[in-house]
Specification:
single chain; flat; two-stranded antiparallel ribbon; about 250 residues; Helicase, Ruva Protein, domain 3
């Protein structure tokens, strides 16, 4: 009995010591957390980063500029404005930007709205005659022109006019391209079994076709009579016999 009581007393002592340690640790944690919370509450809000500089527009800045017959926003750089002109591709725009930089000393990254009227007129003249400058010939859209026989490059309305003239010439000559163009079919050798159909939809019969098929049936109202159909072959069979008999009479 004495051993049990001693053992119980030891357990109670250990439990009390453990409880005291937990309480002491909890108190220390609360004491540490309290100043941190006060510090967080008293902390000043984070300062905002440096503001972006506000761009001040010039007095002569224009919102919309017309380049080679195309209206472009003034905020667009020159090298991107050239791409929006009909007939100038991404690759040709790079070469045209280099030509403008060499001839007019205009940076291709300059915004279009900052350019003067005199500069815009000079840019239009250069774009209308790109074939006169040092640009690779494979970038032009009229190589070995049909009428002039030289390498040319046309843009905007001139390009539309040249394309329509080419199509009309192909149709008049009735070449294979012209034949396909005149019937609205694909020109470059594509397949037309499933795509490019211009008639009725695939697998659908129109009402007129269905009515014609029903009229062609033997029991239909518009179908020819059976007797008339049988008499027609008989009349046709008699003619060959007469033709054979004629040579015998001559002999």
């Amino acid at each position: 009995m004495m051993a049990k009581e001693k053992h119980d007393n030891k357990e109670t002592k250990r439990e009390r010591e453990a409880k005291d340690e937990r309480e002491a640790k909890h108190g220390e944690h609360e004491a540490k957390a309290a100043p941190e919370a006060k510090h967080h509450k008293a902390a000043a809000p984070p300062q905002a980063g440096p503001k972006k500089p506000v761009r001040v527009e010039k007095e002569n800045f224009r919102g919309i500029v017309r380049i080679a017959g195309k209206d472009v926003k003034g905020e667009v750089p020159l090298n991107r404005a050239l791409i929006r002109v009909r007939g100038i591709s991404h690759t040709l725009a790079v070469s045209a930007g280099a030509v403008l930089h060499n001839e007019l000393a205009i940076d291709p990254k300059t915004r279009v709205g900052e350019l003067s009227e005199d500069q815009i007129d000079k840019i239009d003249k250069i774009l209308q005659n790109l074939h006169e400058y040092k640009i690779p010939a494979y970038l032009f859209n009229r190589r070995s022109d049909y009428l002039a026989g030289t390498n040319r490059h046309v843009i905007m309305n001139d390009l539309i006019f040249e394309n329509t003239q080419d199509l009309e010439r192909e149709k008049k000559l009735y070449t294979w391209k012209g034949y396909r163009h005149s019937y609205g079919q694909k020109v470059r050798g594509q397949r037309t079994r499933n795509t490019g159909r211009t008639g009725m939809a695939v697998g659908v019969l129109r009402k007129a076709i269905i009515a014609a098929q029903q009229a062609a049936k033997p029991g239909a109202a518009g179908a020819p009579a059976a007797g008339a159909a049988a008499a027609a072959p008989a009349a046709g069979a008699a003619k060959p016999a007469e033709k054979k008999a004629a040579p015998a009479e001559k002999k």
